[in-house]
Structure formats: structure tokens, C-alpha cells
Design a protein that fits this description.
Elements (H helix, E strand, L loop, with lengths): L7 H8 L3 H7 L1 E5 L1 H9 L4 E6 L1 H6 L1 H10 L2 E4 L2 H7 L8 E6 L13 E5 L5 H14 L1 E7 L8 H6 L9 E4 L2 H10 L3 E5 L5 E2 L9 E5 L8 H4 L4 E4 L11 H16 L3
Helix pairs in contact: 7-11
Length: about 260
Amino acid sequence: MLTSLQNPLVKHIRKLHRPQGRRHAHQCLLEGTHLVEVACQVNYPLITVCCTPHWQSIHAPLFTLLHQTGVRLEQVSPEVLSAMVTTVHPDGVVAIAHQRHPAALPIPFPQWGLALETIQDPGNMGTLIRTAVATGVGAMWVSQDSVDIHHPKVLRASAGEWFRLPMEVCRDLSVQVQSCRRAGIQVIATIPTAPFTYWQVDFNQPTLILLGNEGEGLSSPLLDLADVRVSIPLQGGVESLNVSIAAALLLYEARRQCLPC
């Protein structure tokens, strides 16, 4: 059992709390039982799994499955585990995993896609990923200046759906948007002054939805690439909605329109 905070493995895991540490090692952290379970379900490669004796005893089948995959297993004290994770109340397990391999997503894509510009909050990013999978999004592009998609909170907020959504981090998001337009994909952006509401759009065709920064929205160059601009009506002087809620409204309207009558 690892009991020292000076152990090299503990120090390595703590480096993965920071973006530069994750980039340097090409690794990320899976904190909590659910993420480890989903990683096993989808055969996502794990490098090392650290758990407390109590966690091992109450999750014996999962521990056995991990052992059968050949992943490195380390038993650690509760104090050491607490130092390894970013959560306040860890449930007893953390895993090191490889980062996703960068790959260009195919265009066109089935159904709907998302393009995210300068999303800063990891909770929003994780919720966007979870909503995207729930509604059948086929591809998601993320600008390079957005929050790191390997941030531990992004993975936790995605509730495990992070593993299931095709994603690409883009140096220039406008290039992907322009490629979608050339492929005949409808590009939609939300803006408060738009003449149409989001339920007046025809989502029965391949559609890319543009979503911007939590405070500033979409930049003018990206907004200019939209074929259709729509609004989300708000009452009571509310200025705007959370970006993940706005995404959910548009995506579930798209799903509603495509359901059989």
C-alpha cells in the first residue's frame, strides 16, 4: 500500500491536475467509480488505477475486471488518494488514462454537430458533452482556446459520456465551419436580436450549431459564417442563458422535429 505523499506515482498524478502536466505526459485523470466503469465498458485504455482497500472491497467485480485487463493496480491509503484527486470527497478510486488521440472528424456527419468557441468553464464543457451524446450529436469541434477537454472536471461533468462523443480540438474553428458549409450542412448561431426563434428552424437536415463564450458569445468572424441566426426568447429582463442550457434547448428541438409523428 502506498502511504507516502512523496511517492513518485503520487507526485506524477498531482502533475496531471494541471494542463501543462497533462499535455507533457499525454495523460489525464479519471476520478471516481463511474468514470472507471465507463472506461472499462468502452475499452478505453487505462494505465494505472489507484484505490483504497475499502473501495476494493465494495467494488470487487470491477477490481477483478481491471486486474484481468492487465492495468497496473495500486492500493493506497485514504490520505494518499485524497492528495491524488481534485475532488473534495473522493469515492476511493482514481485512474490514469491516455489522452484522446487527435484526429480530424469526418464531414459531413450524421444528424447534428456542435462547434464551441472559447468555452471556459469545465462544468459547462462537460455538460455540453453529456447533452450532445444524449441528443445524438455526431461530431463536436472545440476551439483551441477553450478549456482543456481533458480537465478532470470536464470528464466528471460529462458523467462518462466523454468517451462516447467524437471530438476535435481546432486551431482555427472557422476552417471546420467553412468545410461544413461547403458540404451542404446548415450552420446555425444564436443571437438575441435574431428575427427567428430556434423552433422555427428546420432541423430535418444536417445542421451545425455554433456556441460561444459564456460571457462574450460568438466572435463576429464566426457569427458571420452562420446561414441562419436564431433567438431564444427570454422574459423578465433575463440577459442570457447558460451556454449548456442554450445547447440543450436547440438540440432537443432538433430531436423533437426529427421524431416520427
